[in-house]
């Protein structure tokens, strides 16, 4: 989405690294794609803070649509936490390595990313939902 939204600054990608495996690998935190999607919405629909009314509208819209995609994700997958979604506990020795070797990330995590990208595109294509980005 960072390329689709013309956010082609690598800093944005690096800012998302802590979301891998929850926040900082703390799996009781939301799945990284859930957190990153909310940040993506905020970046995409940001506006100048000097326009207080537009900023207020954008802030409320971004919060509402973030809540919408999180709710839809939870309804579809039954959880939003990393541990709840993949069923593994990275705090146990060797568990993260097993996760990588097992390919669970290909089967599960890829589906979570695809789902959120689809939801972000759906919101983007629903005309009139958002204050337009600069």
Characterize the structure shown:
The structure is a single chain. With 134 residues, the chain is an all-alpha fold. It has one domain (10-125). Helix content is 60%, strand content 0%. It contains 6 helices and no strands. The chain has helices at residues 10-16, 32-44, 52-77, 82-86, 95-102, 104-125. Helix 2 packs antiparallel against helix 3, helix 2 (32-44) packs parallel to helix 6 (104-125) and helix 3 packs across helix 6. It is elongated and about 50 Å long. The chain starts with 9 loop residues before the first helix and ends in a 9-residue tail after the last helix.
**Unreliable sequence segments:** 130-134
Radius of gyration: 16 Å
Total helices: the number is 6
Helix content: 55-70%
Report the portion of residues in β strands.
Answer: under 5%
Overall SS class = mainly alpha
The overall average pLDDT, rounded, is 85
Shape: elongated
Count of structural domains: 1
Ends apart, CA distance between termini: 16 Å
Please provide the ordered H/E string of secondary-structure elements. Answer: HHHHHH
Number of beta strands: 0
Main sheet makeup: none
SSE blueprint and pairings:
Blueprint: H1 10-16, H2 32-44, H3 52-77, H4 82-86, H5 95-102, H6 104-125
Helix pairs in contact: 2-3, 2-6, 3-6
Key terms:
134 residues, 60% helix, single chain, disordered C terminus, 6 helices, elongated, mainly alpha
Give the gist of this structure:
This protein has 134 residues and is mostly helical.
């Amino acid at each position: 989405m960072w390329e689709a939204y013309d956010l082609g600054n690598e800093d944005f990608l690096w800012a998302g690294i802590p979301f891998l495996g929850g926040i900082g690998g703390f799996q009781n935190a939301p799945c990284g794609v859930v957190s990153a999607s909310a940040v993506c919405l905020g970046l995409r629909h940001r506006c100048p803070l000097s326009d207080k009314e537009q900023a207020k509208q954008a802030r409320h819209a971004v919060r509402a649509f973030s809540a919408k995609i999180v709710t839809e994700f939870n309804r579809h997958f039954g959880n939003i936490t990393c541990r709840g979604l993949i069923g593994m506990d990275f705090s146990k020795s060797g568990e993260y390595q097993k996760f990588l070797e097992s390919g669970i990330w290909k089967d599960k995590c890829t589906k979570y990313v695809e789902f959120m990208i689809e939801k972000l595109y759906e919101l983007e294509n629903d005309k009139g939902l958002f204050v337009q980005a600069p």
